[in-house]
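User: Teach me something about this protein's shape.
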Amino acid sequence: MIKNILYVISLFIVCYSSLLACAANGSAQPASINAPSNASSDAYPQKTGKPYVIKGVTYYPLENVSADYVETGIASWYGNDFHGKKTANGEIYDMYGMTAAHKTLPLPTFILVKHLDNGREVVVRINDRGPFSKGRILDLSYAAAKELDMLITGTARVQITVLSQTTGHLRTEGKDVDINKGAYVVQIGSFLEQNNADRLAAKYNAIVRKTAVNAQMFHRVQLRGYRSRQEAEAAAKGLENEFPEAFVMAE
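Assistant: First, the predicted structure itself:
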């Protein structure tokens, strides 16, 4: 069970530079706002919150959440229009931080967000309330949406899983699992045509894994042999000039 869960957990990347212009409005990017380290929820404002009413609907913020909390639905993202404004927990919203808004989860809560159509994942911290558009369960920051490759589409089908209080651990089966240790890969490409994947894999001594997404078969080119998340993260950073979309996955 733990091995299977580790397989789907990817790198928690915080990206503060070299981001594309915001797809939501096409305007120039504002400066990043410095935020505390994402090491623990203790470093952030904590707020239970009272019941609140939006558009005639009453929402009841949770004081605690079970370790097996999973939710599936539609996520959206928000950027320039809210950058620099206060969030529900009192801090300043930074569109370049790995954060998100949820209607009822405790502030803060760390969650794993998986894009159900392309398989990409990201870890974010809940620090705001929303979204209040019908049918949506999560509003992601610009940076988080970019990692999930949903800036252009604007929305995506996602699954969210609550993590433990530290971003480096996943709470499962009643135990904390250290996701920094284990076998990791760096994905440097994904192709519909296997020949293209094979050529890239041969050049970099990589492997090719087949994954079906929406009835299409993708051939993912991955570098193996990393024994920790940090090691794989360093490798991905060294490849960012040639493969700017490279990302880390647990094997």
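Now, about its shape. The mean pLDDT is 77. The chain has two domains: 2-16+47-176, 180-250. If you'd like, I can walk through any region in more detail.
User: That's plenty for now, thanks!
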